[in-house]
User: Fold Chemosensory protein from Arctia plantaginis.
Amino acid sequence: MKSIIILCLFGLAAVAYARPNGTYTDKYDSINLDEILKNRRLLIPYVKCILDEGKCTPEGKELKSHIKEGLEEDCAKCTPTQRSGTRRVLAHLINHEPEYWTQLKAKYDSSGTYAAKHESELRELKA
Assistant:
């Protein structure tokens, strides 16, 4: 009986955490991406967090927790702000941080499946 109660509590917690429209939390959508992308001192800790090479801020942890699913589902649960921001950040990494871009691809897209879909388009995008 106790296990059923615990299972129900976990189920309720999961439902309470999920957004009603099925998107990721928009809690961090107001982060100033331009400020981060223009300042390597701000950018590199995020990259290192995602690569498991450094500490993570709360927003870094949130991002990292959704990378795999976001790639596999083509950002289906992203808000419009997250979708746009993702494109800007990836374009910046591809065009200005190729060594980190290579490391990120190796970690999250070793087969090149997802990068192949968007990389050439993002190379042309000014970030």
Remarks:
- The chain is about 70% helix and 0% strand.
- The CA atoms of residues 22 and 77 lie 6 Å apart.
